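Hi support team,

I'm opening this ticket because the web form for multi-chain structure prediction keeps timing out on my end. I have pasted the exact lines I submitted so you can reproduce it. The total is 387 residues across two entries, so I didn't expect it to be a heavy job. Is there a limit I'm missing, or should I split the entries? Thanks in advance, R.K.
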Amino acid sequence: MPQTTETISLEVLRYRPEESAEPEWQTYEIPLRRDWMVLDGLNHVKDTLDGSLSYRWACRMGVCGSCGMMVNGRPTLTCATYLAALPPGPVRVEPLSGFPVIRDLVVDLRDFLDKLRSVKPWLVRDEEKPLADGEYLQTPEQLAEYKPYSMCINCLLCYSACPIYALEPDFIGPAAIALAQRYNLDSRDQGAAERLDVLSQHQGIWACTFVGECSAVCPKGVDPAGAIQRYKVGATAQWWRSLLLPWGKR
Amino acid sequence: MNPAYQPYHPKWHRKRMPIFWWLGQLPYVKFITRELTSLAVGYAVLLLLAEVWAVARGAAAHARFLGFLAAPPVLAFHIFVCAALVFHSVTWLNLAPKALVLRLGGRRLPDWMVVAGHYFLWLVASLVVVWYLHGGF
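Hello R.K., no limit was hit. The queue was backed up. Here is the completed structure from your submission:
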């Protein structure tokens, strides 16, 4: 492993409820290696400087969505952000904003998980066809319709970038709505009406004021803002249909 | 040590959102500006209704209204309102492809075509208004 003499300051917002009621900044001087991500810097701190630092991570390759944090004030996957891209420092690392902090850089995800469950992010069928009838086939065009939304890794950077979620915690939020849209646009799914009952409420799509930062920070190009606006158009069309054709099928 | 801390009863830290949360980051400043300039849109509608009302009250009332519009402070304010309207319109039209998915022959139109279509309609509407003001109807 090549050695480096360059260093960079890592300022970490630490919350240790047993020591202080308020979070406090702690600075660590770490090597500035060309191939290190911010997460590698945190791992270096944990391994060699301060084992009490708490944070989540798992895959180190932008798939698990565990290591989202605020880096220099912006929601970021720390496994996908080079330290070398952030000099001269200091690099400020905070827990994802908008979420209650459990400890150091670890936030409570339960609110999101409850909301995600409420939009039924799975294939809903009125009736399952028998196994003997084979798979539910799709054309490439049908796959392309929902595939971008299926790339979501639940990293919650979009929630952290969304001021509406921070101001109105009841808002279902970008990722949950994008995932609802992922299933609504799936040709095999028949649960759009059930999801609409949840998403057409005020705390659903209508709470979104289209800031657009959820899409800007998404590491997977999911575009939750686009999903929400498309959902709004669809829900409005649905409302007009139910008004003009009250006897029609929802 | 934190004297209020109780073992096995951890307390989550919740950060309050400051009132000026949007300052300091350009995308949020742009968003708030876009939202605030919607007031200019509302004002422009009220101004148009006021002019219709003045016209309905007769030529003298309309002349007084035009005199009000020509006053330098009002003119300066309306130049500001116009700039706000343009900012609101441009930022709004640029967002159109997020909400609108148009298809031609089964293929989705690219975003720039949706934006260009909106600008084209804006241009046509403006030309119709200009034509009308010059006695076209």
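A quick check on our side: Chain B touches chain A through 26 residues (CB under 8 Å). Let us know if the file doesn't open in your viewer.
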